[in-house]
């Protein structure tokens, strides 16, 4: 996709909200638009699906100039996800997801199948959710349906306007991880607006840092932006603690996982306690019959006979996945009382734990490597 000299001048305003923006958005990549409030991120994005008409310039998707295409047709070929999901409250989940396919006149059977396929894709059980109404869902689930709806007609391009802005940080981290896993499979071209620089670093193949008038101050990979910020403005965006920010560049799947002491629901607590002591631990992670983590128990908890007979899932047990960043893992660690965070894989099966030492180690190795090139630069001057 390519924006060429795209400009938006709102009626009665001196300055253009978006002033002559040219940028190339590679197919199959996620491009993040970040910048201060009012700099023109949303206006830029909404010109792509012509919710806002450009005053000047043109937008090409593939080889097609979409600036003169029928806006309704255009919008059906571009997925759109907004903050709070924007589901139709009087439509069921199924009808919400099936909306665009219906407008595209798919037959009823194909729509039904597609709805279930989309629910599966966003990890919601079709039988349980297809007939619910949006108010009967949590914020995170609504947001998942928003993503499912945008993907239903399989558009090559997706626009996401602060899609995870309205959910709590842990849910946001989950939704981000899920979107990244989906993207591994789907390879959509995604333009994603966010206020959150960490989110930009985590989600973006590239980040465009914008200033007023949607002026592109830097457009590069997260890695490059963090190590070579183009200006003071960019640096102010990155803020303090670039080493901490670098944690956002490393994924849980890139570090070594450790084994926690584990036991299963239904096991004998005395046996479990013996095993925990043998390996010199004090806590054990209880898994259910499908290896899904339920809760941590201490050696003292295990003194109660039958303690493992039925183990309810601890609602505060926060999990991360391979897609999560070390920054996410650190967040979870800081809000839980354990020096480790539990990692799960497909179908939420237990895979291991990340230790606080691993994160500290990653931080110090980042500091050494990022100090390298700049030290050399100074020497050459
Ligand atoms: N419908 C409109 N009419 C007039 N001016 C508008 C309109 N929409 C946006 N603007 C102005 O255009 C500029 C860019 O707005 P835009 O919403 O694109 O910024 P943004 O970067 O998305 O901001 P935020 O991060 O606060 O959502 C702002 O100065 C805004 O006041």
TrEMBL record:
GO terms for cellular component: membrane. GO terms for molecular function: ABC-type quaternary ammonium compound transporting activity; ATP binding; ATP hydrolysis activity. One of its GO terms (biological process) is glycine betaine transport. It is an enzyme of class 7 (translocase). InterPro entries: AAA+_ATPase (IPR003593), ABC_transporter-like_ATP-bd (IPR003439), ABC_transporter-like_CS (IPR017871), CBS_dom_sf (IPR046342), Gly-betaine_transp_ATP-bd (IPR005892), P-loop_NTPase (IPR027417). Its EC number is 7.6.2.9. Residues 1-238 form the ABC transporter domain. Keywords: ATP-binding, Nucleotide-binding, Repeat, Transport. Pfam families: ABC_tran. Belongs to the ABC transporter superfamily. NCBIfam families: proV. PANTHER family: OSMOPROTECTANT IMPORT ATP-BINDING PROTEIN OSMV (PTHR43117:SF4). This is ABC-type quaternary amine transporter. It comes from Solicola gregarius.
